[in-house]
Design goal:
The chain has helices at residues 3-17, 26-37, 58-82. The protein is mainly α.
């Protein structure tokens, strides 16, 4: 592209950005049409998701992870100890 094309393209972008009326995107038009007939129900901000089960505390999760890491270290050490030289 030549420098003149760059300037023309920049001018076109400035002209488009300065437009008084901007057409909404296809998704915005689709949602507006859908909501006109069936408006969405109001939702609280950061609504609580459905709880699946009781949550564990972070300490329990940390202990499980550290226990698994220790078990892997011991297993690898035992395998190396038993391996023939």
């Amino acid at each position: 592209m030549s420098e003149q094309d760059d300037e023309r393209r920049e001018f076109d972008l400035r002209w488009a950005d300065a437009a008084e009326h901007k057409e909404p995107s296809a998704r915005a038009r689709m949602l507006a049409a859908r909501w006109k007939e069936n408006p969405p129900q109001p939702q609280p901000f950061r609504a609580d998701p459905e709880r699946v089960g009781p949550r564990r505390s972070s300490w329990v999760s940390t202990a499980i992870v550290l226990g698994c890491v220790a078990a892997v270290i011991l297993l690898l050490g035992y395998a190396q100890y038993r391996a023939p030289y």
